[in-house]
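Name: Putative fructose transport system kinase
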Amino acid sequence: MSISLENVAGEIIARAGDTRRFLVAIAGPPGAGKSTLADNVAKALQAKGESAEVLPMDGFHMDNAVLIEKGLLKRKGVPESFDVRAFLDIVKAVRAADQEVLVPVFDRSRELAIASARIVSPDHRFIVIEGNYLLFSQGKWAELEGVFDYSIMLAPPMEVLEERLWARWKGYDLDDEAARAKVHGNDLPNGRLILENRRKADVTVDVVQD
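Structure predicted for Putative fructose transport system kinase:
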């Protein structure tokens, strides 16, 4: 199934009615295009006169030093490599819409999260939350069930994900061996885990149109 940004923005606004705070979840495997779609949805909402901000789940990656201690550095991106408790707390604070909330943002070029790097203001009506495990049905991630007002699952074919992931890691100047380890040793297995253990989304798409 494919969707257009115009239709997505219109559907979100229609569902929100006169709600003061409306949470939109954009979930999917690594390389599915979550960050791009989230930014574009926020811009489409703003173009319609609405206030919107993006909250990326990647900001809750555990630091590499912690992942080394836990033996998870090579599997960075698996469900247990995120500070899910902190993420849940932030989402609850954002849901309340009664105060400014500072959220972390992940810098992929440096492979680290930057604390308090983005502001979610009470004046932001729509919060577009994007991340791998927003609709994941296992572990503590399952506590997110019922939190979001509208959800989109991005599920491109695996061959499309593989192509995008290769392009991503080669873009960071990784050699073939290192890129292969990222794509086939980590990202694609995580993608299959996400797709095989997901809660139902309001809409599931493989292609997003401009």
